[in-house]
Structure formats: structure tokens, C-alpha cells
Design a protein that fits this description.
The protein is mainly α and 182 residues long. It has 2 domains: 85 residues, Serine Threonine Protein Phosphatase 5, Tetratricopeptide repeat, CATH 1.25.40.10; 96 residues. Helix 8 packs antiparallel against helix 9. The longest helix has 15 residues. It is globular. This is Tetratricopeptide repeat protein. InterPro entries: TPR-like_helical_dom_sf, TPR_rpt. It holds the Pfam family TPR_16. Keywords: TPR repeat.
Length: 182
């Protein structure tokens, strides 16, 4: 999936779901594949299944909220994001959602809390927020910082819908190539 081989990823996750249909992590992985493939309705269904099997599974609510947000279902997205227990994923999604809702003060407050609480542990997520805020150079600088600190979020750089606003920027394209994802 991270190499944009979505059909192969879908085939693999379908086999995994057939073999282990009660594993919430497999359903969450299915949601991540659908999300990265821009199939947001399928992602929501997979995250709902993961949460039905394990209501405590990490980041499923946030990614379901992101999927709903990208489908312009903002009230439903807000409810899903508010249910996310992980500060990293909840605050990232909340900042982006509030920006989309037209609440710049709430968006900035969530972003500031993300930076204050998690710092370098969430540099990649900070870049997602800046990309969604339309602050391209700041987003790219944060992605470079993520690379410097070894942020694992960079594995999603080539397929992350939250980075779509900067995906055509030459500096972003160069960074993706340098990381070996293009």
C-alpha cells in the first residue's frame, strides 16, 4: 500500500480478512488501505467493523473521522474524532477538522496542544496539519524535521490524503523520491 500498489494491498487484506475475520487489527488495516486508496466509504465501514470488534483499538476513530471529513460529513467526523483516545491522532484530526469547519481559533488550539503535548513525537502529524492549513513551506519543513528525528509517520508520505494539498510541490516530490517512495 505504501508503494501505491493498492490492488495488491486490497487482495492481501481480503485474504487476511477471510482467514481471520474476528481480528480488529485486520479490519483497521483494511481501513488504512481503503483510506490511502481514497475509498473513504470503504474505509469507514472497515473502521466501524474494527471498533465493533474492539472499541478500544487505537487510531480507528481518528482515521474514520478523517475519512468522514474527506467525504464532507463533518458532524459525523467530529463525533468520531472526539472518540479517539490517542492524543496524537485526535489532536491532529481535530485541528484539521476545525480548520475545515471554519473555526481557525479551535484549529490553532488543537494544533498548539499537539505540539505542546507531543513535540517531536508528532512532527509528521504537525506536517499533515500544516498541509491542510495551506502552509506548504511549513509542512515541508516539518516533514524534513520528521526525517531528521526518524518519525515513523513518514512511511505514509506517498499515500497520505492529508498531504494531498502539497503533493505537487517540487520540494515535496523531491523528498518523497529521496525517501524511496517514488
Amino acid at each position: 500500500m505504501r508503494a501505491r500498489r493498492f490492488a495488491e494491498a486490497r487482495d492481501a487484506i481480503e485474504r487476511a480478512l477471510a482467514l481471520d475475520p474476528l481480528n480488529p487489527r485486520t479490519h483497521r488495516a483494511s481501513g488504512l488501505i481503503a483510506y490511502a486508496s481514497r475509498r473513504y466509504g470503504d474505509a469507514v465501514a472497515a473502521y466501524r467493523q474494527a471498533l465493533q470488534l474492539n472499541p478500544e483499538i487505537s487510531n480507528a476513530n481518528a482515521f474514520m473521522g478523517n475519512s468522514l471529513m474527506l467525504m464532507n460529513k463533518l458532524p459525523q467526523a467530529r463525533a468520531a474524532i472526539a472518540s479517539e483516545k490517542s492524543d496524537m491522532f485526535r489532536l491532529t484530526s481535530q485541528a484539521i477538522l476545525e480548520h475545515r469547519f471554519g473555526n481557525p481559533a479551535a484549529a490553532q488550539e488543537a494544533y498548539a496542544e499537539l505540539v505542546t503535548k507531543l513535540g517531536d513525537a508528532a512532527v509528521y502529524q504537525q506536517a499533515e496539519v500544516m498541509a491542510q492549513f495551506g502552509r506548504t513551506s511549513e509542512a515541508i519543513d516539518l516533514l524534513r524535521r520528521a526525517r531528521a528525528v526518524g518519525d515513523a509517520g513518514l512511511t505514509a508520505i506517498a499515500t497520505d490524503p492529508m498531504l494531498d494539498p502539497i503533493a505537487r510541490d517540487p520540494d515535496f516530490v523531491r523528498l518523497v523520491k529521496e525517501l524511496g517512495f517514488a
